[in-house]
Amino acid sequence: MKIASVEIIVLKSPGLYNNSDSAAEPEGPTYMGLAKITTDTGLIGWSDIETCAPVAKACVDAPKWSLEPGMECFDGLATLLIGENPLEVERLWYRMYRGSIYYGRRGVALQAISALDIALWDICGKAYGQPVHVLLGGKWRDRVRAYASTLFRGNPAAMTEAVQHYTAQGFTAVKFGWGGFGQNERRDLPLVEAAREALGPERDLLVDTGWFVERTPKEAIRLVDSIMPYKPYFVEELLHPENYDGYRQVAEAVRVPIACGEQEATDWGFQQLIERGGVDILQPDLTRCGGFTVGRKIVHMAERANRLVVPHSWSSDLLTAASLHLTAFQRRAEFVEFNTSQGPLSRELVKNPIQLEDGYLRVPTGPGLGVEVDEAVVEKYRIA
Q: Scanning 45, 92, 288, 323, which has the fewest C-beta atoms within 10 Å of its C-beta?
């Protein structure tokens, strides 16, 4: 079996990613990329990719730079995969990483590699007739508790209404993030207070403060201390992603677990988060960190360092399925993130959407990712 074609498909939603002062559900991603790898036997592997999709497409479609063996360093990612055996995921990951190293190593090139790696694992599962978690090494659980992942609303009443909406669906944990949070402490605290009161003491509240609001470590510490009375399970993304020493300063000063990592890439990057950053919870996004090939290494690294892993998963059911496989593979797992946005790129891409059951998501058991892409929907929203 050989790889016959590799492509990034660019999708556009008719709506715009937004948030307002109302309790209404945010629209979700405006643009999304899909990685599609087709083999000469007809097997197809898929992954979504939450990045600047046209740039990722350029990384994949770029030509081969040199015909000289061993000189791959500016090559388009497709040229590095076509004709190769898709089952050799570890070797192909490094082939893409080295072959793009002069324009890659991190950023959009690594994100494209991540999506292609997930698609290769999807092919492997379909070839062997096994779900990805079995190929990773095993399944420790059949289901994972999900938290509703959404944006901060603009006022306490809207926060209360939003929480009531999620708990009525069966969620036992809700994470609010971004939106207008972080601009004014006197405005922020009533939002967190409203969420906690609506959730009650038996459900979990998670807070994503949004690092786009630039803070010093001491400002971050003050923020965590201010919301600690509302018992957040964790506080996420307080500082710039590369501020490892600042994260250690915060993590050592507060009692609330500190989470970050959705912007991080490669196992080397997560080693920095553990050793320099000292964070409590790692949040690798499989479409950014390096795919399953790197995600498995992050899980092993976290287990050795006694850290939790809660993958970032905010796009479509494709990434949710991938994250469930990685979470099933962990010996200890607390949560999986569930993007509650109602836009078509979040909700319509697969024929068998992942459904909440009593606050949990079931780990897919079908071959590969265990979800089936609806190619009619892909064509409907495809722009490149």
A: 92
